[in-house]
């Protein structure tokens, strides 16, 4: 299958579409101000994927400081690709872009939370080199 998606930074005009994708794909939904706040604070790591002029996926992050020391870490807050656009490399491309963009904030480490049952996402993160450091009960 040939795909022609484009990866670019989020702009405020994308908000409704990104919220729609979030609500379609994930049980963790956020207010518009939550998305806007993340964008205003960390614009480089709020990324969308566009296919035929329509946004079909997004990934967004927060940059956080570790408890010890000053090291900055990128925290992946949310990523989703619309079901009909999955398995075409979009999720992988979004993650690569986000991790690259974290360097602009001097964050050289990235972490995230994922349900133990979410095999597609876990496989995606493993493919990118993530490793499991902790399993928390009742996190979600
Ligand atoms: N089963 C197993 N592995 C899968 C998978 C599936 N259904 N979908 C993706 N993967 C893994 C594979 O390792 C794949 O590499 P491969 O194609 O070489 O096998 C890799 O992820 C990259 O796949 P890609 O096509 O880039 O992913 P995607 O565009 O389909 O997006 C998600 C992956 C997780 C973003 C997408 O499934 C999604 O939006 N899920 C719902 C939202 C969600 O769960 N977000 C994560 C919350 S932590």
Per the principal axes of the C-alpha atoms, what is the gross shape? globular
Q: Would you count the extended β strands for me? A: 5
Mean pLDDT: 95
Using only C-alpha atoms, the radius of gyration works out to: 15 Å
Portion of residues within helices: 25-40%
Task: Give unreliable regions as ranges.
Answer: none
Number of helices: 4
Catalogue the ligands: coenzyme A
What strand order characterises the main sheet? 1-2-3-4-5
Order of helices and strands: EHHEEEHEH
Give a quick account of the main beta sheet: strands, pairing sense, barrel closure: 5 strands, mixed
Distance between the termini: 35 Å
Structural class: alpha+beta
Strand residue percentage:
25-35%
Describe this protein's structure.
The chain has 4 helices and 5 strands; from the N terminus they run βααβββαβα. The chain is globular, with a radius of gyration of 15 Å. With 140 residues, it is of the alpha+beta class. A 5-stranded mixed sheet has the order 1-2-3-4-5. It is 31% helix and 27% strand. Bound molecules: coenzyme A (COA). Residues 25-26, 79-81, 86-92, 114, 118-121, 123-124, 127 line the site of coenzyme A (COA).
């Amino acid at each position: 299958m040939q795909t022609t998606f484009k990866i670019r930074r989020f702009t405020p005009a994308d908000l409704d579409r990104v919220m729609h994708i979030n609500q379609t794909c994930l049980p963790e939904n956020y207010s518009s101000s939550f998305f806007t706040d993340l964008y205003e604070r960390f614009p480089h790591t709020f990324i969308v994927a566009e296919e035929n002029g329509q946004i079909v996926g997004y990934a967004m992050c927060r940059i956080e400081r570790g408890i010890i020391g000053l090291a900055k870490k990128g925290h992946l807050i949310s990523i989703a690709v619309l079901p009909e656009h999955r398995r075409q490399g979009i999720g992988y491309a979004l993650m690569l872009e986000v991790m690259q963009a974290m360097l602009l904030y001097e964050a050289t480490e990235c972490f995230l939370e994922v349900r133990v049952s979410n095999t597609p996402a876990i496989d995606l993160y493993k493919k990118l080199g993530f490793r499991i450091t902790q399993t928390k009960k009742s996190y979600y």
